[in-house]
Design goal:
This protein is an alpha/beta fold and 213 residues long. It has one domain: Alpha-Beta Complex (Maf protein), CATH 3.90.950. Helices cover 38% and strands 22% of the residues. It has 8 helices and 7 strands; from the N terminus they run E-H-E-H-H-E-E-H-E-E-H-E-H-H-H. Strands 1, 2, 3, 4, 5, 6 and 7 form a 7-stranded mixed beta sheet that branches. Helix 4 crosses helix 5. The chain is globular.
Length: 213
């Protein structure tokens, strides 16, 4: 049985696209405390890899058999993780910082066997570029998107219709920017014996109308 160690609706939706059976397990892991302790000591890729691993490990302790999939997505601007905004003012400040600039989106994906602890980790990186945004565009975005951006790293989600006036371009995996890089996830699943009979790039284009890098 495949278990997804994530309460993220976005990751759950992306995994459902693959049409493979899975159950959701909420990892008993304090992500904020981990970041506070280790973020300054780890490079961005290492941080996401370690967070994905810890989430998977936490979930396996709740199970007796199966395979656990966990992921962690971070948004970086000039090497600094932006995290999720605590309120709309924090979101406003984040969008202002991202305006007219490129930033990095990194996801660590971990697949772990419950019985043995055998695991593999993959890292995906994408680049997102924002338009040079006017104050009016930013305020319109905040008003239309509202509080639903408070659970999103960088205060935006590329798949939201409200974000179309923010994002000029992106490079790399689109599903990575959403929160679960499907091509690398499928590679890991099949390595652990979970077969996926889907053309991921075609699937992403059908679902989102955009290319999967």
């Amino acid at each position: 049985m495949l278990y997804l160690a994530s309460s993220s609706p976005r990751r759950q939706e992306l995994l459902k696209w693959l049409e493979i059976p899975f159950q959701v397990v909420d990892p008993d892991f304090n992500e904020s405390a981990f970041k506070e302790k280790f973020a300054s000591q780890l490079e961005p890729k290492e941080l996401s890899a370690n967070l994905a691993y810890e989430k998977a490990l936490s979930a396996t302790k709740q199970l007796s058999t199966g395979v656990v999939l966990a992921a962690d997505t971070e948004v970086y601007l000039e090497g600094q993780s932006l995290g999720k905004p605590t309120n709309l003012q924090a979101a406003r400040e984040m969008i202002n910082r991202l305006s007219g600039r490129q930033h990095l989106v990194i996801t660590g994906v971990c697949l772990m066997e419950v019985e043995t602890g055998l695991h593999r980790i993959e890292i995906e990186e994408s680049i997102v570029e924002f338009f040079d945004l006017s104050k009016e565009v930013i305020e319109s975005y905040l008003k239309s998107a509202g509080k639903k951006i408070l659970d999103k790293a960088g205060a935006y989600a590329i798949q939201m219709k409200e974000s179309k006036n923010l994002i000029a371009d992106y490079q790399g995996s689109l599903t990575n920017i959403i929160g679960l890089p499907l091509v690398k996830t499928v590679d890991l699943l099949e390595e652990f014996g979970v077969m996926v009979n889907k053309d991921v790039k075609k699937l992403v284009y059908q679902k989102l109308g955009k290319e999967e890098g």
